[in-house]
Amino acid sequence: MLARKSIIPEEFGLPGLASRMPRKPVFRDRVNKARFIAKNGSCNLAHKNIREQGRFLQDVFTTLVDLKWRFTLVIFTTTFVSSWLLFAMSWWLVAFAHGDLDPLRQNGTHCVTDVKSFTSAFLFSIEVQVTIGFGGRMITEQCPTAITVLILQNIVGLIINAVMLGCIFMKTAQSNRRAETLIFSRHAVIAVRNNRLCFMIRIGDLRKSMIIGATVRLQVVRKTTTPEGEMIPIHQIDVQTESAVASNSLFLLAPLIICHVIDKNSPLYDLSAMELQCSDLEVIVILEGVVETTGITTQARTSYVSEEIQWGHRFVPIVTEEEGVYSVDYSKFGNTVRVATPRCSARELDEKPSILIQTLQKSELSHQNSLRKRNSMRRNNSMRKGAGSSGSLRRNNSGLAKVQFFTPSEGGQNLNGVT
């Protein structure tokens, strides 16, 4: 039995229409690789299989500073309590050896007065180390051993206090705290500046206290393979910025746009707009400087992956002069606007400079056309408003009622009607 033919011809069916529709080029999605530097500046790196753990104990102070606050407080609390208990045991042994725990012994022969149990020895240990001195218990000159224990406890207590105060000061004054007020734009942009294709970011400082000797370094991190077949998972390539004069120092008084000219020495030289979307590169930005108020060197970091780089955009101005004062509007810090930019790579622009000229000409023509359309729309709106007002005036005139005037005459009264 033959199959029944469809009423709709095959060329007009869904498979036929789908085969004739133009298809857009399909590009393979970029491999979702891990970021080397997070947006907040933290390094996305895990250290595993470290066999020589004792190296961390050789630098105890740095280890304590690097620990989290809860671990630091637990360590110092445990250290204080342990020292109090240790010296309480020492005072109890001194009293026991001297016979002070005997209730029949007279008070004048005690090494430490009123130390009759381990609890009283523990309280005396706390009084000695933290220099409270309630006055109920005190050492006498009867025992040289007690004097030696007193000196040792004072020295140990001073060392613990010095380490604790230094560690707390360093943790509260760490350089990364100052970096919280150093901000970067959410996106990076690539646009034409001074007839060259440039990679640009914006940096700013929210505090009035300045960063002295601020420097900015850019690096491109990508996975590369050498001609010998060696695979380098994190290949760091330095990127030169436009402000590379003298020591590359920046006067970070107001937000600045850091510009990198994409030339033949740039790792972005061969990337076009389409190739950038499929690449796995990561641009790291490092801002360093000395804090003006504390003199501590600080460092702020961030990174931009290919999805966070906007091709054909530039940053909007945010610094204006208002009543003799320069004002910065941080609500527009990361705002960008689309501009005319060739979609080809910087290498193609160097080989064919006419591409840039044609792009700028097309942008100028489109801008002029938009201005003409805008002006024509304004004229049409004004003409419509004028036509509407004249029509309403005619309607008002046609609606006037006829008015009659009566004038006296010799033979009577004549009626004259005037409209």
TrEMBL record:
Residues 406-419 have a biased composition (Polar residues). Residues 364-419 are annotated as: Disordered. Residues 182-352 form the Inward rectifier potassium channel C-terminal domain. Its main location: membrane. Residues 378-400 have a biased composition (Low complexity). GO terms for molecular function: ATP-activated inward rectifier potassium channel activity. This is Potassium inwardly rectifying channel subfamily J member 8. The gene is KCNJ8. GO terms for cellular component: monoatomic ion channel complex; plasma membrane. It catalyses: K(+)(in) = K(+)(out). The chain crosses the membrane at residues 71-94, 146-169.
